[in-house]
Amino acid sequence: MKKEKNTCPSNFRTFGLALQAVTVLSKYPNLCPSGEIAQHLKSEATLLRRILARLVQENILETREGRDGGYRLKQAPENITCAQVLQALLQEESLHGEMLASTGDHAFGQRMNGVFAGLMAEIDQSVLAVLERHTIADLAEKTLLPEGD
Fold first, then answer.
1. What would you report as the CA-atom Rg of the chain, rounded to the nearest whole angstrom?
2. Which GO terms describe its cellular component (predicted)?
C-alpha cells in the first residue's frame, strides 16, 4: 500500500532553505555553484547540495557537475510556485504520519484516525492554495537587491 504524500515536510527548515536557494538562483541566468548559494544563505554547501539534488530530480533545477558546474532554474522564476518547491521536497514520512500514528488500533483510535486524516487533507489543500499564489519571482522581488545580494 502506497503512503499518501502530505504537504507538511518533516523539516520546515529544508523547505525554507530550498525557497531561499531557488530565490537566489532566480538572479543567475547561468550556472551558480552551490558554494556561492551557501554564501548567500550563510548555510552549509553540503546541506544545500542535498536539498538542491531533490529539486533537480523534480525538474525545478538543472545541474552540471565539475569544476565549472553549478545549478540554475529550469523555468523562469515567475513560472515556479512555492507550492511546486514544497511538493518537490515531500517525504514519505511527514508530520501527518506522526499525528496519525498517535491514534490506537482500537475503535476510538480508528475513528480519531479518520477524523485526523480529514483535518490533514483540509490543511494540505489550504497550504497548497496559499503557496500556489506565490512565485519565486515574487520572493526575489521582495528580498533581493538589484545586484543579487
1. 18
2. cytosol
Helix axes 34-41, 12-25, angle to 10 degrees: 110
Of 23, 76, 28, the closest CA to residue 48 belongs to 23
Report field, pTM of the whole predicted structure over 0.90: no
Q: Distance between CA 133 and CA 39 in Å, rounded?
A: 28
Q: CATH for 12-143, among 3.40.50.300, 3.40.50.1970, 1.10.10.10, 3.40.50.10420? A: 1.10.10.10
Residue in 77, 60, 73, 83 with CA at minimum distance from that of residue 133:
83
pLDDT, tens digit only, all 149 positions of the chain:
344 454 444 568 899 999 999 999 999 989 999 999 999 999 999 999 999 999 999 999 999 988 888 999 999 999 999 999 999 988 644 557 778 888 989 999 999 999 999 998 888 889 889 999 999 999 999 997 665 45
